[in-house]
Write a structure and sequence with these properties.
Two copies of one chain form a homodimer. By secondary structure, chain A is an alpha/beta fold. The first copy, chain A, is built from seven helices and 13 strands. The longest helix of chain A is centred in the first third of the chain and has 13 residues.
């Protein structure tokens, strides 16, 4: 008798961005599994088991969750943001794809959440209001030349670009490399927004442009938004500008 | 004394995907403004004014909301999905950009929501688990050749592609044109998912591929997902396949 595996999106910060569906799954679950800071965001419930692990062991965590669900447990794997966007859902299905046949019979449900780029966009105005793409700058699992190719096509296609995982201790220069590449295809005055720790106490929003952005301001908790030709800034008195991407193409 | 304007994401279907923040704003608002089917999804509250309008008058609706907020009302403009993704947030800021100076002093807050592509992805597995883009096929406001250019770069950049607004009565052939264009750049066996009316009673999910997809199956309530080279199908017994995009590049 097998259990169930929920893959739950917690949203980018506190419970204000949690959906009703996610909230209910977190109450129903017997086991909560995830990267430590995400597990810590789930309210404690008596009798619930909590397994927090390091960020780099996504596949191990996925296998642990699948094994428990197969054993009859109701398991919730938790992700910040949306588990379907650069997060745990792909890792779980990758584990299923390469795991025992029985895992394909499990009851697995992905519960979407508000992703980091959406929370960042909401703070800026509406920069993702028209055609956009999302690119992870992490080169742990894909070679850097694939990332370069995607950045080039995103720029040449005039997409608004959301950059995930823009910085890491292992490769601190990759965001600088990405900005340098984009400057070959986009005007210097292209909008750049840095949304840091959105929804958290130390939230910081920086509005700048491609020829002035300081890569040192980008850390692991930063979501970077690069504007397209239709992205506009609305100047305001005594308040941060609003930014939106026009629904009209130039 | 000015009021406040919330731009609220309702998520793709019923209240299961509503965030806590959105729920609270809908209770606080004095006026609910939006496209008729979205307004109808907001629970009735005594004393609350409801203004439902047609889908094609987004800027008029934005101006009405801004005028009311400036007059001191607490207003909620409601959108399906995420208001920041092909929805009302960009329309509101566009209205501000071209409106009276006073609108720039208003208290405008965008409340993000689960977007259609995220709900569709959750049903399929994790097809947006790696680099992806979102393109609206509506050519009401942008010329078709811009859309063609974006589709080409999305395909050549090996992005997973989410297509919004794939069909309309005014231009029923544009999804067929888009598939034909993509076939010039992508293999025939490229994954195509059609997610129809996700979260609603008549929900239907179709898994197919680029050389077999039937454009007639795509309607206005369909979110189309085109896979990338890393997108995989997991075959299952007696159940729909799961689809995910590998975090590794090929």
């Amino acid at each position: 008798m097998s259990g169930r595996l929920y893959i739950v999106g917690l949203g980018p910060a506190d419970e204000r961005w949690l959906t009703l569906e996610a909230r209910e799954a977190l109450v129903e679950a017997q086991d909560i599994i995830g990267y430590e800071p995400y597990v810590a965001r789930v309210p404690l419930r008596e009798g619930q088991t909590r397994l927090a692990s390091d960020n780099r062991v996504e596949l191990d965590r996925a296998r642990e969750a699948l094994t428990r669900a197969q054993g009859g447990r109701i398991v919730a794997v938790v992700s910040g943001g949306d588990p379907g966007v650069f997060a745990m859902a792909a890792a779980v299905f990758e584990a299923v794809d390469h795991g025992p046949q029985e895992w394909r019979d499990l009851d697995i449900r992905v519960l979407p959440g508000v992703s980091a780029m959406q929370a960042a966009a909401a703070r800026l105005g509406a920069p993702l209001g028209h055609d956009f793409c999302a690119i992870s700058l992490s080169d742990n699992l894909k070679p850097w030349d694939v990332i370069e190719k995607r950045l080039e096509h995103a720029a040449r296609g005039d997409f608004v670009i959301a950059l995930y995982n823009p910085a890491s201790r292992a490769r601190p220069t990759r965001i600088a490399d990405a900005f340098a590449l984009l400057r070959r295809f986009l005007p210097g005055e292209t909008f750049v927004g840095l949304a840091k720790s959105v929804g958290r106490e130390k939230e910081e929003i920086i509005l700048t442009q491609l020829d002035g952005v300081d890569p040192a301001q980008v850390d692991m908790a930063t979501l970077v938004v690069i504007g397209a030709s239709g992205t506009r800034r609305i100047a305001r008195r005594g308040a941060r500008d609003w930014v939106y991407s026009s629904r009209k193409a130039l």
